């Protein structure tokens, strides 16, 4: 080798070594959504009333067309600031909502602003400082909002504020979400189609025993009072009010008894004459869709009823069509899969629109004439090959015939936005091999008409391992979807310890055909420590159909644990797995699973970290627990088998329990009850509390959390770094 060749080689080696960057835990936690996220078009959306789309690029609002013309800038920060009278100016373009082709709405400095692109002027709207739960009505410009526990409406015409309720107090709540946001409830106000009336929830929880969470930010510490109805206990009472904006009068729907029934999924008829409420009994076995006269509150008709011997969980309101006022779309799992049904309010069922072994996940929208719907759903799910469940595709549904056309052929996870005219879809998708791609598709054929973005792999310059999607045998002959992350230095001839991450609870799916296969970035960092990182979606998890989900009924956390242990058996059968060095981590339902796995299979794991864990279902809230477990009186065996403090003496492995000091979802009492049982039985256990945090640890403190979780497991598994 010549001296010159040696010099070239020496110059090349440092460059080659520096080409790949090590992934740090700090970056994996704090930059997962920024530097290490796939490229995207920020704020991408259709412009209301136009066949154009918009997004933000380099702090400029861009407008695009369906043709080949170059996207143009229509607004920048300087121009927006010039129209704002506030002394506090914008540093970047805020999230915007299109009200028309020429008007956008945004929030800044405690006020809503409407910007007119033609006039280049901004109209501000001021709400009281304590306003919450604001709900904007685009036709009138009225805004419903709550202050403390009462409901108000600010007029879009003159700015006057009307107080709708006056009885808000400790235990009386108006205009907010109810039933602890179960059954698809995410808000507490519902405008009629043209804004003439406002439906709202009123919740009386005075009969629910107060629960106190300590706030150590005060000196001395004080206690925040919440109302938390526990399984089998007294639940709150909900009613629905209807406020007429023109007359100022409010009536309440005559929803009848029992008072602790669930009133869910509120929707209006297209002519605003009727409001519809899905009644669900507390046993969650029977529901009925009831039509009410919006002017009197009188019940007029029960439009449909459903029964399930295990449980029902309506998640979507009836969608009434504008083109045919008597018809509506209903979602149901009655045939075993969530599908769409077309009903007539007078005649009953018209036809089942979608069928087959797949799940409708979301109704995206309808064309203006309501001849078809665009929905997102899984691919076909076969018992022996359930990988259809990890896909999300876009479908077109013909309302006249039920003809279903799949518009996406690329394997992966697709999400749709339908244009106002119904002709075009924005399809944003990713897969195991595609970080993020955005295209425009014809809504009739699915044909791609324009490419908007193909993201580079944000981890291309980072040293990370591989991710594999697998299926394994589960309970009752079903197969389960699983994910395995291997380190970049994986050697099939070596044996590696395993970190199992689990949730496995209802309405959650962890394994998907998407970027990173649904994994969090910290899991790839953990793999680089020398772990195999493993996850299984067992029975009870989402998007596998009714029977797969209901297999956990009355035994929440039992079948799921057996599924997780099937995963352990699978791993132990692999030549590259060190079956003597395994750990488990999970949060919330996953915290329950972690603790249950360690206490039911002592000696199998070296360690576990249970975050925000449910330890005793009788301490958890009514709406969730009784759906899956019935009440403690009705199902004493099921509760006894899953009450983990009674099994504390079986704990042989190191367990770290973590809780948030102000967790109002899974109360700290869960963790304390297990700790007390360990103390009583002389069993060692570790514990850490995050004061002031709720059900999860967010923000910069999340780095502290993940560092604690992984250090705890590192010390016990000694991974191959």
Would you give an account of this structure?
The chain is of the alpha+beta class. Among the domains are: 357-456, 6 Propeller (Neuraminidase); 462-717, Alpha/Beta hydrolase fold, catalytic domain (Rossmann fold, 3-Layer(aba) Sandwich), CATH 3.40.50. An 8-stranded mixed beta sheet has the order 38-39-41-40-42-43-44-45, with helices on both faces. 42% of the residues are buried.
Strands side by side in the biggest sheet: 38-39-41-40-42-43-44-45
According to CATH, the homologous superfamily of the domain at 462-717 is Alpha/Beta hydrolase fold, catalytic domain
Structural class: alpha+beta
CATH class label of the domain at 462-717:
Alpha Beta
Helix percentage range: 10-25%
Estimate what percentage of residues fall within beta strands.
Answer: 35-45%
Predict the CATH topology of the domain at 462-717. Rossmann fold
* Architecture per CATH nomenclature, i.e. the level-2 architecture of the domain at 462-717: 3-Layer(aba) Sandwich
Average residue pLDDT: 95
- The count of DSSP E runs of length 2 or more, i.e. the number of strands, is 45
Nearest-angstrom radius of gyration? 27 Å
In quaternary terms, these chains amount to: single chain
What does the overall shape look like?
globular
Low-confidence stretches: 1-18
Largest sheet: 8 strands, mixed
Distance between the termini: 35 Å
